[in-house]
Design brief:
Blueprint (H helix, E strand, L loop, with lengths): L8 E6 L7 H16 L5 E6 L8 E3 L2 E3 L14 E3 L4 E2 L1 H13 L8 E4 L3 E2 L2 H17 L12 H9 L13 H22 L7 H15 L1 H5 L23 H15 L3 E2 L1 H10 L3 E5 L25 H6 L7 E7 L2 E3 L14 H7 L12 E3 L1 E2 H11 L3 E5 L14 E8 L5 E2 L6 H6 L1 E7 L17 H18 L11 E6 L7 E2 L5 H4 L4
Parallel strand pairs: 1-10, 1-11, 2-10, 5-7, 6-8, 7-9, 11-15, 14-16, 15-19
Antiparallel strand pairs: 3-4, 12-13, 16-17, 16-18, 19-20
Protein name: Adenylosuccinate synthetase
Pfam families: Adenylsucc_synt (PF00709)
GO cellular component, one term: cytoplasm
């Protein structure tokens, strides 16, 4: 249901563990605000709030990591990068080249906050080194890191070794001093703390070069950026655990100078646009259950991934904000997450869904599972959101060997048979739980061309109603005043922007279908 937005500030967040289709929501919000206000310039900015190039969004066919999804709309004048972001300046330039290859003005619309943190090659090497440490020194399982250097970059922030984008507006000597110290610390940690073997050290450069060459194949093939840009071996020193630091400093300083005109005080930009009556959309990476404080280590990211970070990253006072929580009609996870509602690999629905479930950033195969209403309900109870977006409902239609019933995880059960209505914060207990399911009939119709809720098959409408009912029951569990009742704003029935349903009944009416 398209209810009125309650604030000029709008947060686009995930309420699972990422990959919920947050990117597609950006342009829907922009267009809806234009229609409701009658103003082409209603949305002044789409801001990247957190994380770095580890978060992948697909917007209007563009696969983005650092750039906000607003780049796909030519009438959004600003693409701010908040101070809560860690970003490699070379990646900005590569991604801008990619967006502009597809006809979108990118670089001139960037507004990188002065306090945005500069990440660099040393962080990426540290990322791989810590993964190596988990495997070879601790004998554990790999964490499934993206290798983008995000956690090491945030460690420099809390360790008081910040390099800010504002440093690109100062002297090269000052920047070089900071980066030289960072590289020295990183090499010492990699060799002596992470205990990386000298024979494994060259593979780090091969891994990074291969990953970036694949990710940027299009701009290389079109001649927008030379292939040599993605050869990280050019920065490797003659001996193990050394870098050609002067070459690294020159490369990053040159990239920073190309971005210098786009370095802003984002605080002032946001407050000024608010004062004009314009809207600012905050685009979040990852999701509630990947928050470094609220998720389950090591399967978390290094940033804050939910609504309060909007204010910290923009640098403005806390105030009312309209939050949109995104999820799929089923669940997916990557890495080594505890996955209580995971579907058996040989189940026909698992076979079907795994054919379409790969990470936008890493290409990693996602695990798939039944919709976990406990996770979504707790994100509502403890995080809060006014609207829900439900994506990929179309993927559940019967096809091929998949002809069965659907299940919703409505609660958990512990070893003693006790029913658990919330996600426990103790990781060991969390791993021991079993799902409690509600079974519902599936449907055989192809719904990818449906644009009205009333035109969905009866079983699909009932399934949606039960999803809402289940998460609402979790969110209000134990309370006398059952007032957490989110609005279902959009239902996605395909990847294209037009494949969306916007006329979902009010939640009270929707629940009457049960």
């Amino acid at each position: 249901m398209l209810t009125k937005f309650t604030s000029q500030l709008i947060a686009d967040t995930g309420i699972s563990t990422g990959d919920e289709g947050k990117g597609r929501v950006i342009l829907e919000i922009v267009n809806e605000l234009r229609e409701s206000t009658g103003r082409e310039d209603a949305v002044a900015a789409v801001m990247k709030v957190n994380g770095g190039s580890n978060s992948g969004h697909t917007v209007a066919g563009l696969k983005l990591n650092l750039l906000p999804g607003g780049v796909a709309d030519p009438h959004v004048p600003y693409l701010p990068i908040g101070s809560g972001v860690v970003a490699d300046p070379r990646k900005f330039l590569w991604e801008c080249a990619y967006a502009e290859l597809h006809g979108h003005v990118a670089l001139k619309r960037l507004a990188i906050d002065e306090r945005c943190l500069v990440s660099d090659l040393s962080h990426r090497l540290l990322d791989l080194a810590w993964e190596d440490y988990r495997i070879h020194a601790l004998g554990g399982d790999p964490r499934g890191s993206t290798g983008r250097g995000i956690t090491p970059a945030y460690l420099d922030e809390v360790g008081q070794f910040q390099v800010y984008y504002a440093d690109f507006l100062g002297s090269k000597d000052h920047f070089a001093e900071k980066l030289r110290g960072r590289v020295d610390r990183a090499m010492r940690v990699i060799e002596h703390v992470c205990q990386v073997g000298p024979d494994r050290w060259p593979r780090f450069f091969e891994t990074l070069s291969g990953a970036e060459a694949r990710a940027n194949a299009e701009i290389i093939e079109e001649g927008k950026v030379g292939a040599e840009e993605f050869d990280f071996g050019q920065f490797a020193g003659e001996a193990p655990f050394t870098l050609k630091t002067d070459a690294l400093i020159d490369a990053y300083w040159a990239a920073g100078q190309k971005l210098a005109a786009q370095i802003f005080d984002v605080r002032e930009l946001v407050l000024r646009e608010q004062d004009k009556g314009n809207y600012i959309i905050g685009e979040f990476g990852q999701a509630y259950w990947l928050d470094k404080r609220h998720g389950f280590p090591p399967n978390v990211t290094a940033s804050h991934t939910f609504t309060p970070e909007f204010f910290q990253s923009a640098g403005i006072p806390a105030q009312p904000i309209h939050n949109i929580g995104c999820c799929k009609a089923y669940d997916t996870k990557v890495g080594t997450h505890t996955f209580i509602s995971e579907i058996d690999l040989d189940h026909p629905l698992s076979t079907k869904l795994r054919k379409i479930e790969f990470g936008a950033t890493t290409g990693r195969q996602r695990m798939v599972g039944w919709y976990d209403a406990v996770e979504k309900g707790d994100a509502l109870r403890y995080g809060g959101y006014q609207d829900l977006v439900l994506n990929k409902l179309d993927a559940l239609s019967h096809s091929g060997d998949w002809q069965g019933d659907l299940q919703i995880c409505t609660a958990y059960e512990d070893k003693q048979g006790n029913v658990i209505h919330h996600v426990p914060r103790n990781a060991k207990m969390h791993k021991s739980l079993k799902p409690v399911y509600k079974m519902l009939p599936g449907w055989s119709e192809d719904i990818s061309n449906v644009r009205s809720f009333e035109d969905l098959p009866d079983n699909a409408r009932t399934y949606v109603a039960w999803l809402m009912q289940s998460l609402i029951e979790v969110a209000n569990q134990g309370d006398q005043h059952k007032d957490r009742l989110p609005n279902l704003r959009y239902i996605g029935v395909g990847p294209d922007p037009s494949q969306i349903i916007k006329d979902v009944p009010a939640t009270n009416e929707l629940l009457k279908l049960i």
